[in-house]
Amino acid sequence: MVGVGLMLRRSYSIDEPAPGLLFISFQNDLRTFTATLTHMEASDALLRFTTTTASATFLVLPGFDGRHPLGSRLFG
Q1: How confident is the model at residue 1 (pLDDT cuts 50, 70, 90)?
Q2: Model confidence, pTM
């Protein structure tokens, strides 16, 4: 799925509890992230030298105001 959406991605070097890289990304649609991973699996030659140890996905609710309760814009 090409061109699903914009993804802001940042990597951080970490030393504790073990040396490695932490990648964080922000996008409006989870399909953007999964499309990027699918593309990387097929084309990134460095992946055979890496080990993924964990993954997580978090939902950040859109803002709210007096007319729109928290999370109401998720469903329409």
Answers
A1: very low
A2: 0.58
